């Protein structure tokens, strides 16, 4: 079983400037740990993009669900804090609410303010990479958004993302439980590795990478000051992607 994440650089997570930025809403407890497991969501996306750019060159990227630009902020912070700089041609933003002044300062190029579940969802171009990071769990019909996105991927392009995970045997009951209680922008969809694979197959995408992220995450936990603890969590997640935690994935559009 390939586990490339066990070889990826984690050193630039320590004292990463993204943690310190007050605009990003990182919990205070997380800011005081050296290798916070919470940050692996951005770390996975960074390495997916880094590896793809190493093969293709500069990338056109579209991030869907940008909030205040934490993902691109992490990319810049990694490059300036010991990580490799990922070459980019453009990085566009899609969200139901675009904070244009904030996102322009962060380096986003073009903006689409649109309800992701509306029939009017449409983009103007195709991209090498499209990011759905902790977005789909907030949608009642996430598969419909995937179907809208795939035409905007270039041949050979990749859709990358992640979200909380639940074992397949528990996913349906868990979804029925959380939907009536969900507030505005709350979690309303539940995912297992099987659901990711089913989404890929339904849209003609290939599952190039799928992994869990951790065994345990706790804000401010003292073990998150040690590299070995993060490495252990990454190893555990790779072995048990269905574990109740989070999963991250790369879905590839076949080349022409």
Strand-helix topology:
Blueprint lengths: L16 H4 L7 H4 L8 H17 L2 E6 L5 H10 L8 E8 L4 H7 L4 E3 L13 E7 L8 H8 L3 E13 L2 H11 L14 H10 L3 E7 L14 H13 L5 E8 L4
Parallel strand pairs: 1-2, 1-4, 2-3, 4-5
Antiparallel strand pairs: 5-7, 6-7
Structure description:
With about 260 residues, the chain is of the alpha/beta class. The protein has a single domain (about 5-250), classed as Vaccinia Virus protein VP39 (Rossmann fold, 3-Layer(aba) Sandwich), CATH 3.40.50.150. About 35% of the residues lie in helices and about 20% in strands. It is built from 9 helices and 7 strands; from the N terminus they run αααβαβαββαβααβαβ. The protein has helices spanning about 15-20, 30, 40-55, 70-80, 100-105, 140-150, 170-180, 195-200, 225-240, and strands spanning about 60-65, 90-95, 110-115, 125-135, 155-165, 205-210, 245-250. It has a 7-stranded mixed sheet with strand order 3-2-1-4-5-7-6, sandwiched between helices. Helix 4 (about 70-80) links the parallel strand 1 (about 60-65) and strand 2 (about 90-95). It is globular. The mean pLDDT is about 90.
Q: CATH superfamily name?
A: Vaccinia Virus protein VP39
Name the quaternary structure. single chain
**Estimated share of beta-strand residues:** 15-25%
Largest beta sheet: strand ordering = 3-2-1-4-5-7-6
């Amino acid at each position: 079983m390939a586990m490339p994440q066990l070889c990826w650089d984690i050193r630039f997570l320590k004292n990463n400037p993204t943690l310190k930025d007050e605009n990003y809403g990182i919990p205070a407890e997380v800011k005081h740990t050296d290798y916070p497991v919470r940050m692996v969501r951005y770390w996975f996306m960074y390495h997916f993009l880094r590896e793809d750019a190493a093969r293709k060159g500069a990338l056109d990227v579209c991030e869907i669900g940008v909030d205040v630009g934490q993902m691109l902020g992490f990319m810049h912070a990694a490059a300036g804090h010991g990580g490799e700089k990922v070459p980019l041609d453009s990085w566009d933003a899609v969200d139901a609410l675009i904070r244009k002044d904030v996102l322009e300062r962060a380096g986003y190029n073009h903006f689409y303010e649109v309800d992701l579940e509306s029939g009017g969802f449409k983009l103007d171009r195709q991209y090498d990479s499209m990011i759905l990071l902790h977005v789909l769990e907030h949608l009642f019909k996430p598969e419909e958004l995937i179907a809208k996105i795939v035409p905007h991927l270039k041949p050979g392009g990749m859709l990358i993302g992640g979200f909380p995970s639940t074992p397949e045997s528990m996913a349906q009951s868990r979804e029925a439980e959380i939907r009536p209680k969900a507030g505005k922008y709350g979690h309303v969809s539940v995912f297992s590795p099987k659901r990711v694979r089913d989404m890929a197959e339904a849209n003609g995408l290939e599952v190039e990478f799928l992994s869990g992220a951790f065994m345990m995450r706790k804000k401010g936990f003292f073990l998150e000051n040690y590299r070995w603890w993060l490495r252990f969590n990454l190893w555990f997640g790779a072995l048990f992607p269905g574990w109740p935690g989070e999963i991250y994935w790369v879905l590839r559009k076949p080349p022409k």
